[in-house]
Description:
Strand order of the largest sheet: 13-12-11-5-2-1-17-16
Bound molecules: 1-deoxynojirimycin
Structural class: alpha/beta
CATH superfamily of the domain at 517-598: Golgi alpha-mannosidase II
Enzyme class: hydrolase
Number of strands: 24
EC number: 3.2.1.10
Shape: globular
Radius of gyration: 25 Å
Strand content: 15-25%
CATH topology of the domain at 517-598: Immunoglobulin-like
Number of helices: 20
Low-confidence stretches: 1-26
Mean pLDDT: 94
Largest sheet: 8 strands, parallel
Family: Belongs to the glycosyl hydrolase 13 family.
Distance between the termini: 63 Å
Keywords: Glycosidase, Hydrolase
GO molecular function: alpha-amylase activity; oligo-1,6-glucosidase activity
Amino acid sequence: MKPPTLTTFALFLATLAPMTLLQSQSSTPAPALVNGYQPTWWKEAVVYQIYPRSFKDSNGDGIGDIPGITSKLDYLQKLGVNVIWLSPHYDSPNADNGYDIRDYRKVMAEFGTMADFDTMLAGIKQRHMRLIIDLVVNHTSDEHHWFVESRKSKDNPYRDYYFWRDGKPGPAGPDGKTRMLPPNNDPSFFSGSAWQFDSATEQYYLHYFAVKQPDLNWDNPKVREEVYSLMRFWLDKGVDGFRMDVIPLISKNPAFPDLTPDQLHNYGNAYANGPHMHDYLQEMNRNVMAKYDVMTVGEALGISLEQTPLMVGENRHELNMIFNFDAIRSNREGIKLKPFDLLMLKAIYTHHAEVLDTHSWDTVFLSNHDNPRIVSTFGDDSAEFRVPSAKLLATMLLTLRGTPFLYQGDELGMTNYPFRSINDFDDIEVKNAYKANVLTGKIPEETFIADLRHTSRDNSRTPMQWDESANGGFTTAAKPWLAENPNYTQINANAEVADPNSIYNYTRKLIDLRHAHQAFVYGEYKDLDPENKSIFAYTRALGSDRYLVVLNFSSGPVAYTLPAKVKVDSLVLSNLDSAGLVTDTFNLAGWEARIYKLK
Ligand code: NOJ
């Protein structure tokens, strides 16, 4: 298909822009730069991700829902977060827990109604918070009416909403008949080929994720127009922006050449950054985002740090920020957990500070619904060190460069789940991988389960632990959709809100601190000791407002001497009681974290 003429399309959509919004935007003067940065609310925000299925069940069906979220808004406001990112809440058959959308303008029945959504949104606004929602438009559900139509016939008006291709003739089978092969060797992220044969028209359709998640064809201008329209639908309701699911995958090479062996090694990179990705994001920005005061963050699978300014640079008019996975995946090799390497993590953060200048904003995060629990992965979830290490990680996230994204339950120090068998998992990625690897004898069952105990996405999807009652107070149902972590009797919100020394209350103090001092948002970042294998010590400085953060990433005590030029004034916050003294050498206990004001 010929690429669309973007200018014509843009002009057409621009005529639909609400004039009042355009006028009000142009009359607001831009605030003065801070350390070269244009200040905005989303740079200063702390974002909290809610995975609605696992947050709070209000109606006793074992599944979290929107009224459940509304009932916990005071808890979030007290924590001090400014923006809530809500994972998909749309109507979906749940092949991938809502990341397979059947109707973009409808709320998932298990989660409630549109009226419930409106009540939640009003509650968020009343508490001076904002809401961003998940925009999943690389693919839809196969039950979306576009796809239901598309698969009916080759001349259906919706056929070109998706990618349909003929198979390739393969070698003859034992019966002498030629066997059909998929159009190319693209693998799916969820195991097997990315192409699914459909008998109705004897062609294959593309699905980078599950068979039930067919990829949309963004080269079709009608698809793009549909997406912009659904975005406006939610923005006009008052949502404050989007987290964009696998957004670098939206543009494909329609010739679908075979991937080379090298590309097959990391096919995410090969799928990202297609020929029109930037054109489409710029068009989306012109037609939608530019007309609202919104925040956008792209899940940027396959985009290198060096490519990042092309997506988030202010002069590019694409997205505000992206999630880059260098840090969160620094201790991962596929489904295997690698030993944590502090030197590598520090090098990544320094590299970010070097590559992203004042015109390209960053994000900072080490957890989300696709990754295991932060304290079990980057900290130490043993009885002795769970609390200090969870606090240390929160200290780091909330004092580093970039907008911090916290994942639900991390403010409580929730941990990985003790998975024992394949039946304990819900995730389609795990179930497909089990079929592809264990049932075929490629990986022994024990190894597979042992690896996933550390890395499965279900670790972070177990229900929130609200109190010590049955199922952690998440649901009144006998059984939640995914088992509650049995440690809810010790780790739960009720206990932590009441305990002044809890991870929750420490996180609250950190968020207050970030909000009180722009140095943590716009200040310069400097790693004082990049070669130190157990200490991460860095400064954040904005004029005379200067801070030192010292983190002991080990379970043993460490004496750390500051570089001569760095002079400490007073202790601002620490995760242990022992940190009162102000000297040039710090005797840090295992997983101790301190923040000092500098002279
Ligand atoms: C990324 C999402 O974060 C993940 O949960 C989902 O499975 C895939 N995209 C497909 O939508």
